[in-house]
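Exercise 3.2. Students should predict the tertiary structure of the chain below and write it as C-alpha cells, then compare their answer with the key that follows.

Predict this chain's 3D structure.
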Amino acid sequence: MKMNRETVKRYLWLGYINLFMSTFAFGGGYVMVPMIQKYFVDKKQFFSKEDLHNMAAIAQSTPGPIAINLSALSGFRVAGIGGAIISCLATITPPTIILSLISIWYEVFRQNVIIAAILQGMQAGVAALMVNMIIGMFQMILKEKSIFLTAMVPCAFAASFFLQINVILILVVCCILCIIRVWWKKRRNAKCG
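Answer key:
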C-alpha cells in the first residue's frame, strides 16, 4: 500500500496533536472535547462542531474510555483506519507513562503539598471545560427548535440530580423516547403524504 505525502503529514500531525492533548488533558475524556474542537474544528477544519458533538455522544455511549474513543473517531475522520490507530496509540502513551511514574513514587506524591495544590487547581480548570462543553451541546439542542428535546435536558438533569435515578436508566429512557418520537413523526408523515 503506497502512502502519499498528504497522508503521511496527517499521520504525523495526528500523532503529535494526540500526544499533546493527552499529556495535558487532565480530567479525562470530557476535557478532550474542547481541545479537539480547538485543533480539529477551529484550526484545521477537518469536521464541524456538530460532527464533534455527535462523535462525543458516540464516544460516551460506546464501551471504553471516552478520550480513546473520541481520539479514534477523530483520527478515523481525518485519516481513516491508520489515523484511528495512530490517534489511539498517541492518546494512551502519556497517561501510561505518567501513571507508571506516579506508581513508582506514590508515597512521595501523596504527601507532597505542592502536588496536592496543583491537582486542586486542575479540578477547577476541568470543571470549567466541562461546563463549556455542556453549554455547547445544549446550544445544539436549542438549534433543533424542538420543545420535546429542549424539555428533555432539564428533566434528565432533575432525574439524576434530585431524584438520584441511575444515569444509565435515564439514557435508556431518553433513547426510547426519541425512537418513539421519530417513529411517530414518520408514521404521521406517511399518513399525510
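Discussion points: The chain has a mean pLDDT of 87. The two ends are 50 Å apart (CA to CA).
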